[in-house]
Amino acid sequence: MDEFALIRQYFTNNTASVTESSSFVGIGDDCAVLDASQGDLVVCKDILIEGRHFFADVDPFLLGHKALAVNLSDLAAMGAKPLACLMGIALPKADPQWLKPFSQGFKALAECFDCALVGGDTTRSEQGIFISVTALGLAEQPHVLRSNAQVGDDIWVSGELGAPKVALELLLLQQQRSLNHAELSLLKATRRRLEQPEPQVTLGLLLKPYVHAMIDISDGLLQDLSHILKASQVGAIVYEEQIPIDGALLDSEVLNPEQRSQAVLAGGDEYQLCFTASLNNRSYIEQLALSSGTKLRRIGKIIAESDLVLLDSKHKVIENLPQGFNHFA
Amino acid sequence: MDEFALIRQYFTNNTASVTESSSFVGIGDDCAVLDASQGDLVVCKDILIEGRHFFADVDPFLLGHKALAVNLSDLAAMGAKPLACLMGIALPKADPQWLKPFSQGFKALAECFDCALVGGDTTRSEQGIFISVTALGLAEQPHVLRSNAQVGDDIWVSGELGAPKVALELLLLQQQRSLNHAELSLLKATRRRLEQPEPQVTLGLLLKPYVHAMIDISDGLLQDLSHILKASQVGAIVYEEQIPIDGALLDSEVLNPEQRSQAVLAGGDEYQLCFTASLNNRSYIEQLALSSGTKLRRIGKIIAESDLVLLDSKHKVIENLPQGFNHFA
Question: For a FRET experiment, which of A295, B12, B288, B297 has its CA 20 to 30 Å from that of A227?
């Protein structure tokens, strides 16, 4: 099968509206053409590499989903509405058994958010699968940046944390030895959060008018919060007991408290949002959480001193903060 | 060095205006934010893989240049003005000796076309370098598509063809054995066309109002022309003797006529433009070629029958057309 047939077969026939408007050009020309006049253009690009960001034997449908989800999560952190996406993929062979479910997983999520797949590049790699997706969105000014956290702001986080890191550790352990019953239960309860993350696009859109700074916590809560602090030239006090923990981690006896804490504070592959907002918006945000069924928790405050202070349940400072995920560490 | 320091050090401080306008957000947030309201948004993405699209020991400055050039060439084929770009790169280690010249080559070309580097992703690969660049541009309607070639149109091509393919073949040969003097001369005369292609952005902008269909010929002249023909549901007569050949190929005794013909007709990695235009615009296009010093040659005509007919100097049909570059062939 040649490259062009491959692209046509698996990455076309997107149901989104791109082919229905004469001013739009989708897959099949040198470039895609889009109307991006209804707001400022918001654009991001993430890379996923076999053996580093996913296992070679991961379900291709879930991988297709995740390849787009991690980019939509970046749009969510800007409070942007998805507009379109481009798929770059290099793979050792054009295997329909793999490409079909991969493209289905990708397109199913694209349809959820009306985010048309409009182009990209497909090529052969010498070894391993390499995926690079670009997502485009639209947002009105003023934009929600990392650099606008204000002293006195509440710090919030969405969802419940820790499951992706625990699932990853168990999958790595499984490559060494068989898992016992409790470990298998925990893997089953956490694996979907690792392999099929739900980008918080709708939440980002709802929150946008009410927040000062926002980020997705794909590198782990503490590391991504520290990006906000650095960009805003402020510090933070975070109360560890306020940080929402995935129920599966609390129910399991597999993890000791330190492992659980490490997963929640520093585990990567979380696609929840961390944001700061004025106290004046506290009741709106609490109401939004209630009405939308989304978990939103206040976990701390922005302070003037440039430091990230983590307090335990007795408000004692926790030293030796765990390191977040760091690609070149 | 951690990922973030790496990105900051080599891929920031772009001289383009992105950081000077308050409505723009560049590298360092979840997404870049751009004003794309002055035209329709034109977007493309190309992948370059070590061992497939470039040699491991290629000059990193030239590779940085090429990584952007191949994308700007796609914008050129749409007659679009570059707006911004994103760099995705995975590499086995963060080596400053490599990253510094790579980023310099990339940014030097970006500056040439006022195409700000606004974001991307950097990560570690298990093996080999993988580059995925996304380029964004702006173009006014009506757009120059592949699908609008008209029966009776002249077929044109810019530049002189064949050098990239010849350089590639010689570099591959050099991995097998030492090159002789004539081969080394030919490599020296052709190598820059392979490693530092000049995207025809300015030419694309000038041509846009006067052409019906346009494409860059990165997959080789005949293959890319056939994309126009298929999209437009037309055919073509092409006169082989009209096709412009790189002077280095004509001067050298290394190549036999068949090798030369193969390089010119089917050699990939050409970043020239092939386009079709009405006879009414012939004098404008010839004038544009003269005044801009750009070589533009009429090589054939669009016909109604869906076929690509190549004629030799005696107007006899050449059978067995060479195949173009095909990633999964």
Answer: A295
- pLDDT tens digits, residue range A222-237? 999 999 999 999 999 9
Domain extent at residue B108:
3-139
Percent of chain A with pLDDT over 70: 91
CATH of the domain at B15: 3.30.1330.10
Residues 284-313 of A with CB under 8 A from B: none
By C-alpha distance, the chain A residue nearest B30 is: A74
Query: Which chain A residues contact residue B228 at CB under 8 A?
Result: none
Q: What is the mean pLDDT of residues B183-198?
A: 97
Residue B120 exposure: Cα atoms within 13 Å on the Cβ side: 27
Tell whether B28 is covered by a domain: yes
Specify the pLDDT at position B38.
87
Residue of chain A with shortest Cα separation from B84: A43
Contact B255, B170 (CB under 8 A): no
On whether both A128 and A155 belong to a single domain, the answer is no
Judged by a CB distance cut-off of 8 A, whether residue B85 touches chain A is no
Q: How confident is the model at residue A21 (pLDDT cuts 50, 70, 90)?
A: very low
Close Cβ partners of B39 (under 8 Å, ≥ 6 residues apart) = B81, B138, B139, B140
How far is Cα A310 from Cα A319, in angstroms, rounded to an integer?
8
More confident call, B70 vs B120: B70
pLDDT of residue B3: 56
Structure tokens at A124: 């052969």
Residues of B in contact with A128 (CB under 8 A): 125-127
